[in-house]
TrEMBL record:
PANTHER family: IRON-SULFUR PROTEIN NUBPL
Keywords: ATP-binding, Hydrolase, Iron, Iron-sulfur, Metal-binding, Nucleotide-binding
A Pfam family that the UniProt record links to this protein: ParA
Keyword ATP-binding: yes
Subunit structure: Homodimer.
InterPro entries given in the database record: Mrp-like_CS (IPR000808), Mrp/NBP35_ATP-bd (IPR019591), NUBPL-like (IPR044304), P-loop_NTPase (IPR027417), YlxH/NBP35 (IPR033756)
GO annotation terms (biological process): iron-sulfur cluster assembly
GO molecular function terms noted in the UniProt entry: 4 iron, 4 sulfur cluster binding; ATP binding; ATP hydrolysis activity; ATP-dependent FeS chaperone activity; metal ion binding
Function as written in the Swiss-Prot or TrEMBL entry: Binds and transfers iron-sulfur (Fe-S) clusters to target apoproteins. Can hydrolyze ATP.
Descriptive protein name: Iron-sulfur cluster carrier protein
Domain of life: Archaea
Length: 262
């Protein structure tokens, strides 16, 4: 009964969100959270009302990358939860804001995690939004599907990959995933595509154009390539939003271009 009521609440709230996108990757560590956080800031920069829902509870990456790690969500007397306000007005919702310590994340598994995610979706005061970006746990299996199914009326999925042979398999699995949800693939973003030297020359360390080629082969849009940049991992580790710290970087510019395509 409680579940049905919560699902009704989610449906009601999601009506006020124009585009609901889930971000997928084949495995951890390809930069899915970084891409989600940066795309959110790029969209906000363009004047869109954006929220990020962190459903990847393997650690506080989204809150860190948006510079709000350690903050708390507050509950209003009527039970509504207020999102944490991140840079450029991006709303951030994460289980991380409800945990007492980082070690606690370990206990969020299976049904417990689904229940927590459902509650967060239902009780958060999302307000009117242009974009809700959902950072799913890495992978394209049942866990990710279960979480995605909690959000009615999804608009599409974005696939984050890196230049490597497994990218083809990832895109294939993501297509199957999107079919099961009956939603389109908005496109593929290739992260860590190249390294840019101070003189502006680009070095495609892992080979050039694989992401674009695979996307074309599979008949899904290619959204853009993001460089590998040591300042990115440094900013992320320090809990500073890269996009805001380095707005003139090639990576930030790439996100602004991608924001026009989603
Ligand atoms: P995922 O969400 O796919 O597990 P993360 O977004 O947490 O991956 O990124 C994994 C690590 O790689 C983080 O330490 C992050 O700072 C770093 N990283 C991600 N993208 C880049 C990039 N383009 N250049 C340099 N470091 C990156």
């Amino acid at each position: 009964k409680k579940v049905i009521e919560q699902q009704r609440m989610i449906a009601e709230k999601m009506k006020k969100v124009r585009y609901k996108l889930v971000i997928l990757s084949g495995k951890g560590g390809v930069g899915k959270s970084f891409v989600t956080a940066s795309l959110a800031m790029a969209l906000a920069m363009k004047g869109r009302r954006v929220a990020v829902f962190d459903a990847d509870v393997h650690g506080p990456s989204i809150p860190k990358m948006l510079g709000v790690h350690g903050k708390r969500m507050y509950a209003l007397p009527d039970g509504r939860l207020l999102p944490v306000e991140g840079p450029l007005g991006v709303k951030v919702v994460s289980i991380d804001f409800l945990l007492e310590s980082e070690e606690q994340a370990v206990i969020w598994r299976g049904p417990l995690k689904t229940a927590a995610i459902r509650e967060l979706l239902a009780y958060t005061d999302w307000g009117e939004l242009d974009y809700l970006l959902v950072d799913l746990p890495p992978g394209t299996g049942d866990e990710q599907l279960t979480i995605a199914q909690l959000i009615p009326g999804l608009s599409g999925t974005i696939i984050v990959t890196i230049p490597s042979d497994v990218a083809r398999i990832v895109v294939k699995k993501a297509i199957t995933f999107a079919k099961r949800l009956n939603i389109p693939i908005v496109g593929v973003i290739e992260n860590m595509s190249y390294f840019e030297c101070p003189d502006g020359s680009r070095h495609y360390i892992f080979g050039k154009g694989a992401g674009r080629r695979i996307a074309e082969e599979m008949g899904v849009p290619f959204l853009g390539e993001i460089p590998i940049d040591p300042r990115i991992s440094k900013a992320n580790d320090e809990g500073k939003p890269f996009f805001v710290e380095y707005p003139d970087s090639s990576a930030a510019k790439a996100f602004l271009e991608i924001a026009e395509r989603v």
